[in-house]
Amino acid sequence: MDKDRAGELFVVSTPIGNLEDISFRAVRVLSECDVIAAEDTRVTRVLLDHFDIRTPTVSYHAHNAREKAPLLVARMREGQRVSLVSDAGTPLVSDPGEVLVRLAADSGIAVRPVPGASALLAGLVVSGLDASRFVFQGFLPRKDSDCRREIRNLARFPGTLVFYESPRRVSKTIALLAEELGDRPAVLGRELTKVFESVKRGTLFSFRAQGTGEPEKGEWVLLIGGCPDAPGGEGLLSSTEVLSALEGLFLTPGDRARLLSRLSGLSRKDAYRLASGVEPS
């Protein structure tokens, strides 16, 4: 081992299905590093064997992170180069790695990304929904009350909402999303880049009524259209435009405020003040 060489941590993205999606750089980095920290060494070994990569692997996952991270950082302090991979896709995106990256960075070790495949981005770019602004929630909580609270926290976001979900829970999650968000455009991606890749387009209500029509296997990416009534959302008008359109109509202040709130994105309180001739505070 070269004692004068600075240790480094490489966060390496690996294919989410199609092995051809790995980058030339990722193959080189995995081949040249001293050790690969893998979420499941058996899964990673399939990838390494395919590209004839003989670098040794060590297990690093959510349940042993606090034990293994200091050991890996110690190796990097001695000049070794460590690559971090998950079973598929980009580490830390709903996968383990945060503890190791943070500890390495806090220890003054260079952390270098090796970008590549991600189910999040793969789903987003084929969805046809707003890709300029989105929120990635990952997996929602399993408990219904916690799940509903998370969904409500995102309900007013004007951009695309992105979730991961397991095949056994996808129908239940769609039903909860429909209850909390109402009927919105929805795109469901399953087995992206794999042989049985599926991308389905519809609405939350249509998927709730008809189901996904897919077998219970393979993780899903759920992409939901943003709130059209939120400030900056699709189809919104300025408060001035709305008030001009309502001028001359015989509406109660309450009805005028409700329409103004819905069409402009103002809060109900501010809409009522404005509809009553009082500038919002």
* Structural class computed from helices and strand pairing: alpha/beta
Percent range of helical residues? 25-40%
Oligomeric grouping of the chains: single chain
What coarse outline follows from CA principal-axis ratios?
A: elongated
- Ranges where pLDDT stays below 50 over 5 or more residues in a row are none
The span between the termini is 66 Å
What is the overall pLDDT average? 89
Overall number of strands: 10
Largest sheet composition: 5 strands, parallel
Radius of gyration: 24 Å
How large a portion of the residues is in β-strands, by DSSP E? 15-25%
Number of discrete helical segments: 11
SSE topology string: EHEHEHEHEHEHEHEEHEHHH
* Neighbour order of strands in the largest sheet: 3-2-4-1-5
Quick take:
The protein is an alpha/beta fold and 281 residues long. Helices cover 38% and strands 18% of the residues. The strands form 2 sheets. A 5-stranded parallel beta sheet has the order 3-2-4-1-5, with helices on both faces. The chain has a 5-stranded mixed beta sheet with strand order 6-7-10-8-9, sandwiched between helices.
Plain-language structure description:
By secondary structure, the protein is α/β, with parallel strands linked by helices. The chain has 11 helices and 10 strands. It has a 5-stranded parallel beta sheet, with helices on both faces. A 5-stranded mixed beta sheet has the order 6-7-10-8-9, with helices on both faces. Strand 2 (35-38), helix 2 (41-50) and strand 3 form a beta-alpha-beta unit. It is elongated, with a radius of gyration of 24 Å. The protein starts with 7 loop residues before the first strand and ends in a 6-residue tail after the last helix. The relative contact order is 0.11. The model has no long low-confidence stretch (mean pLDDT 89).
